[in-house]
Automatic annotation (TrEMBL):
UniProt superkingdom: Bacteria
Entry protein name: SUF system NifU family Fe-S cluster assembly protein
Annotated organism of origin: Aromatoleum toluolicum
Top-level taxonomy: Bacteria, Pseudomonadati, Pseudomonadota, Betaproteobacteria, Rhodocyclales
Residues covered by the NIF system FeS cluster assembly NifU N-terminal domain: 7-125
Listed Pfam families: NifU_N
Coiled coil: none
Location of the region described as Disordered in the Swiss-Prot/TrEMBL record: 141-155
Length: 155
């Protein structure tokens, strides 16, 4: 099978059987994300200790892309420092928006979502969890929306 098929399979797998799905009782950071284009919502739970992400879980309703992206993100973040998580955000965001490709840090499995760069509405799906992550790390109480992030850029 070619790479595209493997990528597709991984997205379908994580979309159907999301890892780290469900609330995290001892989270010390949470945030909500909302995609006004479709009405989908995500709640993200992050547990950090001494600046290191020990656990990440999420709940919500979303399409296959947003669910797969949140699932892959949750796996990628464990054991990272908050600074590393922000660097991953930047790299992933550059990849899926097609703006300013970054070669560092290595994105690993997150690269399976590169294809959404061709579909602007799907970019919102793929980045919903990630924008919610930044909101969680800065303890933002208002839901982050994918419209607001278009203007803010770094939302
Ligand atoms: Fe709603 Fe993808 S269609 S997040
Ligand atoms: Fe992140 Fe628009 S999708 S700034």
């Amino acid at each position: 099978p070619d790479l595209r098929d493997l990528y597709q399979e991984l997205i379908i797998d994580h979309g159907r059987r999301p890892r780290n799905f469900g609330a995290l009782a001892d989270a010390n950071h949470t945030a909500e994300g909302f995609n006004p284009l479709c009405g989908d919502r995500i709640t993200l739970f992050v547990k950090t200790r001494d600046g290191v992400i020990e656990d990440v879980r999420f709940e919500g309703t979303g399409c296959a892309i947003s669910t797969a992206s949140a699932s892959l993100m949750s796996e990628a973040l464990k054991g990272r420092t908050e600074a590393e998580a922000r660097a991953l955000f930047d790299g992933f965001h550059a990849l899926v928006t097609g703006h300013g490709a970054a070669d560092e840090p290595p994105l690993g499995k997150l690269e399976v979502l590169a294809g959404v760069a061709e579909f602007p509405t799907r970019v919102k799906c793929a980045t919903l969890a990630w924008h919610t992550l930044l909101a969680a790390l800065r303890d933002q109480s208002a839901p982050v929306t994918t419209e607001q992030d278009e203007q803010g850029g770094t939302a």
